[in-house]
Amino acid sequence: MAEQSHRDEMSAAIRAQRERRATPRSIAPEPPSSQEHEPDPEPPAMPERKSLFGRLRGK
Question: Does the pTM exceed 0.85?
Answer without folding.
Answer: no
